[in-house]
Amino acid sequence: MKRVILAVLIVFLVVIGAMAILITFNKDKIVSKGLNKMFTEVETQITPNLPADIDKEQVHLVFEKAIAKVQSGDFQPEKIQGIIMIYRECAKDKQIDSDEAKKILKQVEKYLE
User: Fold this and answer.
1) Interior CA angle at 98 toward 67 and 64, to 5°?
2) Closest CA to 69 of 58, 81, 80
3) Gap between the Cα atoms of 113 and 110, Å rounded
4) What is the tens place of the pLDDT at every residue in 19-70?
5) Angle 98-112/77-90 helices, nearest 10 degrees?
6) What is the dihedral of CA 55, 56, 62, 67, to 10 degrees?
7) Which residues contact 105 (CB under 8 A, 6 or more apart)?
8) Whole-prediction pTM value?
9) Distance between CA atoms of 46 and 48, rounded to whole angstroms?
10) What angle do CA 91, 93, 94 make, to 5 degrees?
11) CA dist., res. 5 & res. 110, Å (int)
């Protein structure tokens, strides 16, 4: 019985070690995929509520540029954190109005600078 428990523990530790190694070597890919999903979701949330003076195609291009910047490896965590904070603040009431959409878009444009 003790040998079985020891064998299971060893296998468990090997699997955890392998996962840690994979995550360490692929962290940029993991972050990139997560940010791609985030930008796509944010775009989906704000597009229906844009003010009349902002074109949906223009917004789509801004988000495409942001995704391209992330895929190039330029994460800039402090700017991305700003986008996340603004989005969370605006999405608290589960409804993003046109002013909030404009605020989020400005934050994404700031990330592109």
Assistant:
1) 15
2) 80
3) 5
4) 999 888 888 888 888 888 999 998 988 888 888 888 889 889 999 998 888 8
5) 180
6) 180
7) 46, 50, 54, 59, 62
8) 0.75
9) 6
10) 60
11) 54
